[in-house]
Amino acid sequence: MSMRDVQAAIAATLLHGPDHLPAGLFAGSEGDVLRGLRVHANTISHARLVALEDTFPHTRAYLGDAEFNRLSRAFLDAGGARYRPLADIGKGFADMLVDPVAADLARIEAAWLAAYHAADAPALELAELAGLDEAALLALRVRRHPAARSLTLASAAAALVDPALAPDVRALLVARPAAEVRLFAVDISAMAVLALADEISPLGNLIAALDETHPDGGAAIAALIAAGAFERV
User: Would you state the pLDDT for residue 215?
Assistant: First the structure.
């Protein structure tokens, strides 16, 4: 049996029980093998719980250790972390949280971690626009920066993560300007423009789209650029 087949067999056994363990895969009695697998499974489970604690420190502080641990175990027992690397283990955790503040906190923290691990790319800076005439500025091709994440919130959770943000912030940009992950309050109308920027687009198109819902699309785009929301293509 190849190493890949062995790993697949062990994973299937840990997920679905000893009936999935091929005979003769390990030396020793059946009892010894099962005890060893239980130790291995407990080690994996503990590592996943620690990874969830590390991923959601603000959510844990808000819920309290006991409740967070209960919800984390329920998430793991339901298979929420199967086949995921530790850096992405919390994906979907926010969806099982009923408390709107806890759910928003978990979504913000997951976005923060995703921004932290996103691909490296230089963010477009306002200083780069200073020497461009109007035609060149509007034609400048940009797209959303790999680290930029936008969230719509249902609670005052943003202020619990960053006290500099007002409690009434409901549209949030998570970005990584100058290699530092930060949170920015944005206008709710800017969220659609960030979605448009998933594809390469002239800056003028984004300004025009924002002008339809915002009193000053140019200023709103400038605020997004200053936050590190775009990369120059």
Answer: 80
